[in-house]
Design goal:
This protein is α+β, with helices and mostly antiparallel strands. It folds into three domains: 243 residues, Distorted Sandwich (Beta-galactosidase, Chain A, domain 5); 211 residues, TIM Barrel; 80 residues, Immunoglobulin-like, CATH 2.60.40.1180. It contains twelve helices and 39 strands. A hairpin with a 5-residue loop joins β17 and β18. It starts with a strand and ends with a strand. The protein binds alpha-D-galactopyranose. The site of alpha-D-galactopyranose (GLA) has 12 residues, from loops.
């Protein structure tokens, strides 16, 4: 395990758990990528294949078949004959050309933090790092490629640091990593979506040419998640090879897949080069975000379990890392903007009665906020609605045995606000252009230190002066006029994200007992970058149980169930108008990080009892649901059902949630085969005491009861005896 280097053949072999990643230094100092995949026993196999093809841009007549365009490259630059998509481009005096060659490398135990950016962390004994420095001697520019090799995971994470020792250059493209494959025999999996239908799974064959899964929206976005996977054609949930890439970043990103004329596949992952430019003066350093490479030879299921464990153990931080996530009741769908102190108290009271642990006051509590058109940035209580102020309300809610949480949207300013009148240049804007007010709001210019300082102090004051133990940090629009009075346009989106990360880092360190949940119109910024600061994300504004089958299926490809905010809500559902049984809404909601978003007082007595009993049981097994191994048993994108199974790490307990979608008259009898158990273990159904072996459960399966009505749902809970 770790990083091996052979001086003679100038070959690097990175060995993560079950994985080999091999590349070498060519005679001229360029790096050639050789292999990435399942572990190879030879330390330094001879894998370089000189091309026997005539190159249209060979550097010399003597060696007509060598060209950078014909090899797989470890970190391709723009300039020098490789005409595919570069991972790096730098411009000086109007010339875009860079020639990076090997300079030196070092190998050490452990992993460094990335200054100002979210990143994986690990004990020194868990990771070996290779730092390889490339150098352009005309520009005097160093580019340090970092590879962190995880010993207990099939994972290598990568990032890039640029150090300018020459005159100023403009960085046009700094991808965090590039990797090549000498074939195109893959299916591409991506997670696309929109508001209220985030992270839908889409799988397509690769084609020649360039595809970019990306965002230019200033946030990772609802539209495309910063994740993609290349999978072997036979790949399924439990079989086949997968090369997955997850980017630890919350802003404009690009995941490029390019297949060239010889069927070679190149993957570049990093900050979106579209309209990116970064002036790096002499002595300046630019650090790219980190990208995670995850390999699985047991399909998408194993890939997801690797990501879940990796992110739970090496990304998410603080008090709530691996600890039970509380059941919260969020006021949004219960009362929207229409409440006063009494209404909130009665809502909190009914929340407490059925077993909630935190009461979250969503939008509408501040400034003059009676709809979504005003008051963002006026983070003081609306005393028309909450006459006594926040503290007396919080005390009353605490007296019910509930913690108190609050909604904020600190990156925004309403045009109708004192702050905007005083500082019209504090928002992103372009002089002379119209300022787009999506959802009646403008985006504060977080690339500016003074704006960040102001917002940090405002939120800090709010948290210091009140007993607030949970914060929902929202961000409800995308960028439009991208401009700052302080920085050139090409720097603004990344500087914005750095500013945001800086504010979050200070707040989460200063308030370690507060549980932060990120949100962006639901799941518009559900990414690994945000999870570093806030251990959970509001998965989607769509709380409909049947919609959630797909949303949870797709989201769980990368993100752990503990991070996926998932609420039981009213019926008919507010987003879809669908009518579903209480049991179904509950059974689906608990496959994420469970909460409530309705007024329990509106339930019929018998329904309330079902929910109350469900919540009691959920609390007993939430560790299993939040941190157990997830197996997706049914795919709602292709099956008429969704099913999620959670198995304890010791494999001595499991829970299954199955939901049928539409019912058929006189339908065939159905079974549900389980996964992830020990065949020889004997398990007992906690509710009806039925006894079944692991082999029976995995090969014959559970007998699914005959459905009556649409959207029927069942759960099973077994323990080993
Ligand atoms: C966004 C969030 C919702 C809610 C509203 C409040 O849409 O995703 O959950 O907080 O804002 O305005």
């Amino acid at each position: 395990m770790g990083v091996l280097f052979d001086e003679k053949s100038k070959t690097f072999h990175l060995r993560a758990k079950g994985v080999s990643y091999i590349f070498n230094i060519l005679d001229g100092g360029h790096l050639a990528h050789l292999y990435y995949g399942k572990s190879i026993t030879e330390d330094f196999p001879d894998l370089f294949r000189p091309s026997n093809r005539a190159a249209f841009n060979a550097p010399s007549f003597e060696n007509y078949s060598f060209s950078l365009d014909l090899i797989m490259r470890e970190y391709p630059t723009y300039g020098g004959g490789d005409l595919r998509s570069p991972a790096f481009a730098a411009e000086k005096d109007g010339v875009n050309f860079c020639d990076l060659r090997y300079m030196e490398h070092k190998i050490y135990q452990g992993k460094r933090k990335l200054e100002g950016l979210p990143c994986l962390y690990a004990k020194d004994s868990d990771v070996d790092t290779l730092e390889l420095t490339l150098f352009d001697d005309l520009l005097n520019l160093k580019v340090v490629l970092s590879y962190c090799v995880f010993k207990n995971y099939p994972v290598i994470s990568r990032s890039v640091k640029v150090i300018n020792e020459g005159e100023s250059v403009i960085l046009k493209n700094v991808m965090s990593a590039s990797v090549g494959f000498d074939h195109m025999d893959f299916r591409l999996m991506q997670l696309h979506g929109s508001w209220a239908r985030e992270r839908f799974v889409e799988i397509s064959p690769l084609k020649h040419g360039l595809l970019s899964i990306d965002s230019r929206r200033g946030a990772s976005s609802h539209a495309l998640n910063p994740f993609m996977a290349l999978a072997s054609p036979d790949c399924g949930e439990n079989c086949g090879e997968v090369y997955a890439f997850s980017f630890i970043y919350s802003g404009n990103f690009s995941m490029q897949v390019e297949v060239d004329e010889y069927d070679t596949t190149r993957v570049n992952v990093g900050i979106n080069p579209f309209n990116f430019s970064w002036k790096l003066d002499k002595g300046g350093v630019f650090q790219s975000p980190e990208v995670v490479f995850c390999y699985s030879d047991e399909g998408f299921g194993n890939m997801s379990r690797t990501f879940h464990d990796l992110y739970n153990n090496h990304l998410i931080r603080g008090k709530y890392k691996k600890s039970p996530r509380p059941v919260l009741l969020n006021s949004w769908e219960a009362v929207y903007f229409n409440f006063n102190e009494e209404r909130l108290y009665s809502l909190a009271k009914s929340a407490a009665e059925i077993g909630a642990e935190i009461f979250v006051l969503d939008d509408g509590w501040f400034g003059e906020r009676n709809d979504d058109r005003t008051s963002l940035v006026d983070w003081y209580v609306n005393t028309q609605k909450i006459r006594g102020g926040l503290n007396p309300l919080i005390s009353k809610i605490n007296a019910l045995g509930l913690k108190f949480g609050i909604w904020v949207e600190p990156e925004m300013v309403s045009p109708k606000s004192r702050l905007y009148e005083e500082h019209p240049d504090w928002c992103l804007h372009i002089e002379g252009r119209n300022r787009t007010t999506a959802r009646s709001q403008l985006i504060l210019d977080f690339s500016r230190e003074d704006v960040c300082e102001y917002i940090y102090n405002t939120i800090r004051k709010l948290l210091s002066e009140h007993n607030i133990e949970y914060v929902k940090w929202d961000m409800n629009r995308n960028f439009s006029e991208i401009g700052s009075v302080k920085y050139a346009q090409g720097e603004v989106p990344h500087r914005y994200i750095l500013g945001l990360y800086g504010v979050l880092e200070r707040l989460v360190s200063e308030f370690p007992n507060v549980l932060f949940e990120s949100c962006s119109g639901g799941g518009g910024r559900f990414d690994a970058g945000m999870l570093y600061y806030m251990p959970q994300t509001w998965t989607s504004d769509n709380t409909d149980a049947i919609s959630r089958l797909k949303i949870h299926y797709g989201t769980s490809m990368v993100y752990p169930p503990s991070s996926m905010g998932s609420h039981f809500s009213a019926c008919p559902n507010h987003q879809t108008g669908r009518v579903t049984p209480v049991k179904t809404r509950f059974n689906v909601a608990i496959t994420g990080n469970f909460g409530l978003e309705f007024d329990p007082a509106n339930l019929k007595e018998d329904e309330k009892e079902v929910l109350k009993a469900g919540i009691k049981k959920y609390k007993e097994i939430r560790h299993l649901l939040q941190y157990g191994d997830l197996y997706r048993l049914k795919n709602p994108f292709v099956d008429n059902a969704g099913a999620f199974m959670f198995v304890s790490k010791e494999k001595d307990e499991f829970f299954v949630s199955f939901t049928n979608i539409l019912t058929e008259a006189n339908s065939p009898l159905k079974r549900l085969k389980l996964s992830g158990l020990v065949p020889g273990y004997v398990y007992k159904n906690v509710d009806n005491h039925e006894i079944m072996s692991g082999s029976l459960l995995m090969n014959y399966g559970l007998k699914i009861p005959h459905f009556s009505g649409d959207f029927a749902s069942y759960t099973w809970h077994f323990r080993k005896i």
